Amino acid sequence: MLRLIHPAPGGQDGGDPPKRRRMAPAFTDTEMKRLRAALRNLRALYGSWSCLAAVVGVYPKTLQNVASGRKRVSPAVALATAKAAGKTLDALIRPPGAAVRCLVRDDLRPVPRPRGPRCRHGTSVVGPGHATRPAR
Predict the structure, then answer these.
(1) For the chain, does the N or the C end have fewer beta carbons within 10 angstroms?
(2) What domains lie within the chain, and their CATH numbers?
(3) Per-residue pLDDT tens for 19-43?
């Protein structure tokens, strides 16, 4: 004789599936503010959102939503934006005039501009007079 067994109501485990947790944001509010400003400046340099979107590799509407604050800045868009700007991601989110540590000499120097001279050790961007001082 054939006997059919019905599953328990509510699924096999009897409960609801686990709820998805929200991930912590990758950037702070001030870092997102600086990235949005960089996007707006790049848009002015490239001429249009569509041209910048082609360089970054996303849809133009995505860049508009990120730059206006309707969407959060994802790490992928932030890295692609830094690449389109020809800078590092750290240079985009670092506050203006922040000091950068030379990893070899272990001293702090103010950065006069984002594309300052390179440390002769090749570790970071440093301020004026760094390469002329003798090494320890």
Answers:
(1) N
(2) 29-93 (1.10.260.40), 98-131 (no CATH)
(3) 888 878 889 999 999 999 999 999 9
